[in-house]
Amino acid sequence: MKNQKEFIQIPLLIAIIAGILIVVAVGYIVAKRANNPEQVIPSEEVLKNSNEESTTTPAVDANSIFLKEEMARKKQRDIDREQCITSVVQYDPNSCKVSALTCATIRAREKERVNEETDRCYFRFPTN
Predict the structure, then answer these.
(1) Using an 8 Å Cβ cutoff, are 53 and 94 in contact?
(2) Using an 8 Å Cβ cutoff, are 65 and 73 in contact?
């Protein structure tokens, strides 16, 4: 049998290195294209376009409109949550006319019911 002095054949080594270089180059190009932001229109052009066409508005106005709408939704959600919580019927402990043990059981069940209904309000109208 012939002694093999080389670890790997040279053409195979060149092919592996070329393949790695191609994969790295393609990955670099794809990453570079993905990270490039879209072309930004200079503010002068935006102002020109907004003067010519009344339907075009600068991006700042769109963002501020979105923020105002979001704040209005959050405010309405908070109002709805508070209305939901205040609409939960509270148990009146003075209305219990039976024995103390039965009243304690009823009071515990009613407290649990009120807590569950309040939790439902927080679930329906989250605080975040």
Answers:
(1) no
(2) no
